[in-house]
Amino acid sequence: MEQMPIEQLLPDMVKWRRHLHRHPELSYQEKETSAFVEDKLISFGIEVIRSTAGYGVIGILKGPKEGKTVVLRADMDALPIKEENDCDYTSINDGVMHACGHDGHTAMLLGAAAYYSSRREELEGELRFLFQPAEEVCPGGALGMIAEGVLTGADAVYGLHLWTPLPIGTVASAPGPLMASADEFFIDIIGKGGHGGIPHRTIDSIVAGAALVTQLQSVVSRSVDPLQPAVLSVGTIQGGFAQNVVAEKCRITGTVRTFDEETRLLIRRRIEEMASAVATAYGAQAQVDYLMGYPPLVNDENECQRFFREAPVALGESVKVITMEKLMPAEDFAYYVKNIPGCFIFVGAGNPNKDAEYPHHHSRFNFDEDAMLHGVKLLIAMADSRLKDKDFV
Question: What is the pTM of this model?
Answer without folding.
Answer: 0.93
